[in-house]
Prior knowledge:
Order of helices and strands: HEEHEEEE
Oligomer: single chain
Largest sheet: 6 strands, mixed
Low-confidence stretches: none
Mean pLDDT: 96
Strand order of the largest sheet: 2-1-6-5-4-3
Shape: globular
Amino acid sequence: MSSSTVEDQQQIVAALHRFASILDHRAWDRVGEVLAPDARAYGETGIDAVIDNSLRKHLGGCGPSQHLLGNHQIEVDGDNASSITYARVYHQGRGERSNLAWECLGEYHDCWTRTAEGWRISARELIVTIAVGDISVLQPG
């Protein structure tokens, strides 16, 4: 494994962690730091659609969340890469749902493209393998 590949993998892991923080802080204006403009993610295509029809729809009215990531498996092939990342995500309700929680465990399957600004996700799929709690804590906002 060349140092270039190791550096690419480190940059991808850093981007994954940055995206988790963006989600947990609802920093929608920073999504473009990780997603490509025409990314396909969460059943949507393009950053604006991903934010408006998925991220805000589920996390916008949710209370605190925490996206924990690990067991990164990253394959780099030139200016493209793929990654599988384990995720454990806790969502707390807000307002009248603050006594409720929903937690999911699964894997993010991501395709990456190297751009002039750095690595960007071009496609993302979340595969949930375990879910516990009340999914109604995911609310638009």
